[in-house]
């Protein structure tokens, strides 16, 4: 788990945050991955006999009673499948075409009320605990289960967790056996959806087993700082708790190390006696001089280690990574470490090609890196708590996060979900703002919404006074309800109303929580309502949304816009707007579900990055269209661009800021080249007519794979012609095999493909618009890894690790 923090200073009508932030690994205590060696079986929501007798056998009449169910320790699960977590059973199911809104929104995977046979998942895992650890405490942390999970250890019920997004921890100490293998059982019920987008099903995030002392530091450590010049005054807040049987005298302090592991400061140890079953809240401070600040460009991270000792011996500690930074959110901008930044953000859901919602941690780094390369500096976790590793990636790589609560609801269940989200994520330097909800049409403009918002905001200020909150409203110039009380006004679309709203409420900062939303299909240039494809240029947007060039120029030039988040960075499963079947995933992404860029990616890259960008589209393979006009788009941040077809100039045009250029070009095969001038420097880019596919090219995302059973590599696949040119419209079927590691998913970004993401051996995928992707997970032992790709009539390719 990771923690972070920061500190707030109130500034005249503005919200001003001065910060430190921390993300954590545990030392002193043991925290082990609990992802391996699970067994899995589908249950049934409509037939108790197919649901491990759940609902038939009376199990809640006596503590530990579990006979005649899969919950029983002795239950024979040898016929169940072996799975390694994270695991998403929804992505394994075949697509089903049924005219149903819920099914469409969730990507036509047959989970939910209409499919009781696919909506319950049972998991079992046997584990041993060393007798040497007798006397210790043990807990299990689930980072996320979709959803409505119930958990048992050795037949004893540990309680449930409704949320499909907020994780939970259960103390299992009382139920652990040191002599015989222990059995943990989870029943997940995905019948009820929480969203209107693909959500996955099962234990789709990491699980951890922690071993620690009866005297321990509770999970909710909070670290924050006030920065003055090059000095940071750091405050650490922690609860020391005793579950021992007698009062204990102990000491508490915290140590800080820099990114090289060098000691840079510590708090003064404080001694106190803690009663049996007692707890002691600690608040200590230390000063760091010549502090290295965390920023988007240089995400410098420190570690802080709160420690509790008894008679000089360390009994518990936490290791929390943090970054020192200041964030001020004012009506005229976000200031990070005092420097103005425009929010250049994307919204994202959590699924990826081939994997559904169950991503190895590496994929979080992969996806955040792709967004960073585009020039994006912020990520909205629409519309729920992210996995902790996403925040780790954002801390490490320098990406701000707008962290969102699933529902605008102040009932005990949702207030508790919000509380857990705040406590879990408040130490991450990347988190710069909370969101208390999204488009709550039943509440946002009335007194219910206003009161719920006030309750959630009070909770946020209580648990994290170092930040503030927004709410994503699909409202134009409307102030009643949530907007009356929300510190930062969020606009979902309706960019035309922002100027008027600002005029009426000049001191309320405004952020575009959802903006843009051009619908595009990568590499496709005509609308096709049969296949459900849309042209890959900034042309088509739904009625409620806008094209990129309709919102970004407004946000770019007016500082009463803090900036905005495009809907979305990546395509995601579900919401195939404006189509339905055969479309199974959205078209909103600047990249497809694999992370292959669409042309719009280069529009944002041009205006979000201060580096030369020059991109020509479409590709230049238009056999049969000789003599016909082809509409050419150039995305660039150059001052002017001249286009040449086979060496002949088609004219030079000045590039307006935050815009693009177009030419209608009479097609003839050859080379279409753009030559541009940027700040007096010449740059060029071209597309070329290619020959037929000749050989496969594999492009791995990295060259080293850790043999830890968890690491992963993303391998992008394309084909080359005889001259080594990538063939952009290739559609070959590629077959994959792998020795020494496991293939865990394939994809190609085609929003209407019904090919399987997962398969039992014989892995294959068609290229779509020239690309597909295969994702490999490392094995547990160091060994040679060979990944092979083959296709009929093509030269194959292989990678070796
Ligand atoms: C918004 C909503 C998003 C997504 C999007 C599609 O209204 O907040 O979750 O549904 O529309 O356009």
From TrEMBL:
Residues 219-325 form the Glycoside hydrolase family 2 immunoglobulin-like beta-sandwich domain. This is DUF4982 domain-containing protein. GO terms for molecular function: hydrolase activity, hydrolyzing O-glycosyl compounds. Pfam families: DUF4982, Glyco_hydro2_C5, Glyco_hydro_2, Glyco_hydro_2_C, Glyco_hydro_2_N. GO terms for biological process: carbohydrate metabolic process. Keywords: Glycosidase, Hydrolase, Signal. The keyword Cell inner membrane does not apply. Belongs to the glycosyl hydrolase 2 family. The keyword Kinase does not apply. It comes from Mucilaginibacter gilvus. Residues 627-683 form the DUF4982 domain. Residues 696-799 form the Glycoside hydrolase family domain. Residues 117-210 form the Glycosyl hydrolases family 2 sugar binding domain. Residues 327-523 form the Glycoside hydrolase family 2 catalytic domain. Residues 1-23 form the signal peptide.
